[in-house]
Amino acid sequence: MPPEGIPLVTLKKSFREAGRAILLLSFSLVISVLLVEVVIRIIGNQSDVFHMLDPDVGTVHIPNKSGWYTFEHGRIPIDINSAGYRDVQRDLKKNQGTYRIAVLGDSFVAGFQVRQEDLLTSVLEERLNDHSCSGTRFEVLNFGVSGAGTAQELETLRHKALGFEPDLVLLFFYPSNDLFDNSQELRVQPFKLYYELGPNGGLQKVPYTVVDPILKQWLRQHSKAYLFFHRSLAHVTALRRALRVLNLVQPAAGVPTERSSDALEILQSSQYLREPPPAIDRAWRLTEALIKAARSESAAASADFAIIVIPNQEEILGNCSSAPTAEYDFESSLSSVHEICERHGIPLLSLVDDFRSDGKSLEEYYYPQDGHWTAEGHRLAALVTVEWLRPTLFADCSDQQSLPKRKLESRLAGSGS
């Protein structure tokens, strides 16, 4: 029965009109979404998705994925191998007479901003083979993943890199954000793999579960519009999260907090304060434990282990636009890494002096907006690394014997700073 006072024919007419309105609205939304999809594809400024969550290591690239990475300075073709990393295809079994170097790191090592042939690892492999005089073949394997911290790199070493039988593990450490990628207390990104220090100072893995619905996976793979809106929302979410963290760790004086658009930059610059917040000290202790564990895992697999520090532009220039330099020590992160390596006898190379002393503009090595290395930055890092390794890797060239193992740590300990 219709409500009292409303004729049945009028009620039916109202339902039909409401149904048509809902149908028209739904049709309009579908057309709008399709138009946005078409426009974004025509403009061509939306990168393909290359990352996927992994229960063992946190994040890897989608195996065998090919596509384009788009950023402020152009479009770069990206090819991922079957292991889920930006590298040529590698066999698990190492050929006789081959010396393998496994390179761990974040977006600087993954190097989506440059072509494959210009990558740090590609140039390093090419130059090492140019110098080889004993018939040894060098392979430099790239295990870099954007956003990775030392915790994910430790798991990558355990579950991925060591399976390729490396002779040497190089951990490229980026103090500017690796410290924050390691600490759950300081985190600004969700869905990351973390460790924490237990009561006795030992490492304890934080429970990590991959939750990635099939619909989201499909949209990431096939919809440019979804990627556009998802990344825009993620940027806002990360900014909001960074502001919350600032309220927890920011001291009363020092870094200004009114510039919300620079929240993440301000948060990360807090590690350079001459009196850093307690959370920064806790993050360094956790980072030291992670580095020590990575070194132990490498040694157990009969692989040498060394750290190479990637400087950011503030560390190279020694100043920061966000606050007076009198309150900051831009050598502090480099000093912290150096102290960790000294305590544990880990060979260390810092690239900061090489980027400082070359005499070129930083824009030749770092993209201004993106902040990552240009092809010239990758090349300089590779050449410095080759020169650092030469006395060890080519020590026996005179007698044409195969390369010795287990000599790197004794020869290089304390040789780089």
Textual characterization of the structure:
This protein has 417 residues and is of the alpha/beta class. The chain has two domains: 1-43; 46-412, SGNH hydrolase (Rossmann fold, 3-Layer(aba) Sandwich), CATH 3.40.50. Helix content is 44%, strand content 13%. It is built from 14 helices and eleven strands. The strands form four sheets. It has a five-stranded parallel sheet. A hairpin with a 5-residue loop joins β8 (195-197) and β9. α9 (278-300) runs parallel beside α11. The longest helix is centred in the N-terminal third of the chain and has 36 residues, at 8-43.
Strand order of the largest sheet: 6-5-7-10-11
The domain count comes to 2
Q: Helix count?
A: 14
Helix percent band: 40-55%
If you compute it from the alpha carbons, what radius of gyration comes out, rounded to the nearest whole angstrom?
Answer: 25 Å
Coarse structural class = alpha/beta
What is CATH's topology name of the largest domain?
Rossmann fold
Q: Please, what is the average pLDDT?
A: 79
- Global morphology: globular
Strand content: 5-15%
What is the element string, with H for helices and E for strands? HEEEEEHHEHEHEEHHHHEHHEHHH
